[in-house]
Please model this.
Amino acid sequence: MTSLKICGNLADRLFSRGFGVRDKKCLKLSWEEALYLCEKGILKCDFEEILDEASSHLADFDIRYLVYRDLKNRGYVLRVKEDHFQGKKSYSMSFYPLSDMDYFDPDEILNKNPPLILSIVDGDGDITYYMVEIHEPRGEYFNFPTSLNAKYYGRRYFVFEDLEQLEKSTYGRREGRFGHLSLLEARYLGERGLIHPVESSGEEIYKVYRDLRERGLIVKSGFKYGTHFRVYERSMEEHSRYLVHVIFGKEELQKVSRAVRVAHGVRKELLLAYIKEREIKYFRVSWIRP
Model:
């Protein structure tokens, strides 16, 4: 990782400003630090020469340097690590540089011990920062309707009796003389012995639906927002707090960006739900200005 060693008074001054690693009376600079100091004219060197040399040693150095440069210009003190920057300003955080052509990899993120910040460079060179945290959503709704006489038609279950009970519950919808339930709702109520569904679909999607319900959350379709679910904490009389999107492995950052943008625009929190072995991990992803 080391590109340049300097000694003397300059080494002391740069170290006091958060650059480099001490090597006795000298200072070892990373490639990012050396190029940044060269760009600023603090080091007398050839910018293109250092860029060529750094790129020959580090994959995606162009992306790394643009993120490093942006954070330094924002006032961060940075420590260069193997695959990220440890940044300190008002608080300390790990910044992981990526291209907008990369992927959101849930297993890799879990190995990095979030919270962390994905620092994504797009085709124009603009940088977007997303905070990624592990989140445990919890609600306060654990009520169930009474036993329902539901009948399967196509892709929904229809209810013709106990419509007032259905209307008061957070399951399905009443439509005048009848009500109806989604397959996910029917399957969950069937497991509770309240109806007897025989059809199911989307095994992984259902696991997330059931987990959210077991956490005391009210779960409804998120289709209008381009996600799997919209989720309420206590009551549907309040605005939903979360948009939940189920991911099955690596997800294109472009798709994650769209989901974050929609959630931010409607004042909700985006959760990416990922089934890790038998456990469901929820990543809360939010746009930040570092």
